[in-house]
Amino acid sequence: MLISLDAPLRLTATARKIAVLYYNAMRYGMAYVDPDADQYERKYRERVVKQLHRRAAEFWFTLQEATPQSVS
Q: How many domains is the chain built from?
């Protein structure tokens, strides 16, 4: 029963957070920062690697970064 009562509180908290962010952006201004593709790819890679570490840990494995080998 508590789960159904908790949903409106979370919705109200989220709405308030968005409203405060919007107010501060309109009142004080906010510089727009356009994330470039490299930054997106870097964050995506970090998320994927973190997920792989987590999955490997479930099976008692550890992941190690591979060193690139030169092709002869």
A: 1
Q: In the numeric block, which tokens belong to residue 10?
A: 């979370």
Q: Does residue 24 lie within any of the structural domains? A: yes
Give the amino acid at 48.
V
To the nearest 10°, the Cα dihedral for 68, 63, 39, 18? 180
Task: Note the Cα 56 to chain centre separation in Å.
Answer: 20
Model pLDDT, residue 1: 46
CB 33 within 8 A of CB 23: no
Q: Which two tokens stand for residue 58?
A: 């479930």
- Percent above pLDDT 90 for the chain: 50
Are residues 62 and 56 in contact, defined by beta-carbon separation less than 8 angstroms? yes
Domain that holds residue 36: 9-58
Asked whether residue 39 is domain-assigned, the answer is yes
Q: Is 31 helix (H, G, I), strand (E, B) or coil?
A: coil
